[in-house]
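Training component of the fellowship. As part of building independent skills, the fellow (R.M.) carried out the full modelling exercise for a liganded target. The chosen ligand was zinc ion. The inputs are recorded below so that the supervisory panel can assess the work.
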Amino acid sequence: MSSMTGLVANPPNVYYSSTKFVLEALTEALAKELAPFGIEVTAIEITELEHPPLHLLLGNDVLTAFREKLAGLSASIDEWEATTKDVGFSDDKPRPQGGQRARIPGRIHVSLVETPRPRGTKEMAEQSTKPRPAVDFLKIPESGDPYLEGHKCKACSAMYLGERTSCSKCGARGQIEATKLANKGKLYVYSIVFRSFPGIETPYVSAIVDLDGGGTVKGNLIGVEPDPAKISFGMPVEVVYKDALGRKDREGNSYLSYFFQPAS
Ligand SMILES: [Zn+2]
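Fellow's submitted model of the complex:
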């Protein structure tokens, strides 16, 4: 049971409207998800109610508010159209050079910054053959094997993924240094995932692994059946580097990702 305030929020119904907006989103997403099974999900937005003591948004008030909201959304979408087409992965148009700032008035401000890449025939040739890392803590050296990079506090040995300037464990500043993480570790916890985004094959095993020597990393566990009987907490695993399930960016570059598998 939703409400017109799930479509148009008004003071002082802050919390009431918020919960109705959630209900709208839940209904909309669930309806799309269950449609292939022939199940319909419906939210009812009440507009007429015999309820004399309450002031409800009824009649022309709510109609006008709703039409204004639709007109506002439509105008925002028109303004946003060029930007989103410009950066969409499925669009063949070349991406603009450097950074671009998209502004959608009164709604959301999005900054899209692309790191400029060197332009040259050598780099261009390399781009088509060398995969890109799927995450920024996966490093692909010019020569040698790919590896995961951690950032370690020299003061307390705490290990982090991703760069930082100070240690959130001991508070030390300027003591963080990049370090190569081990390719072996132990499975800390896992979850078997049965529902995911369209195009993602399920079930798969999402895992958190404590790497030997420090570093806790989340990733997919492969090479084992997604069956609790076949997986145990603390089992030794190793990091392997493979193509990121065939995904490519708009320029055709492939991505290299990391996975865990039971240690051989
Ligand atoms: Zn520290």
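The panel noted the following from the submitted structure. The first strand starts at residue 2 and ends at 3. The chain has a mean pLDDT of 81.
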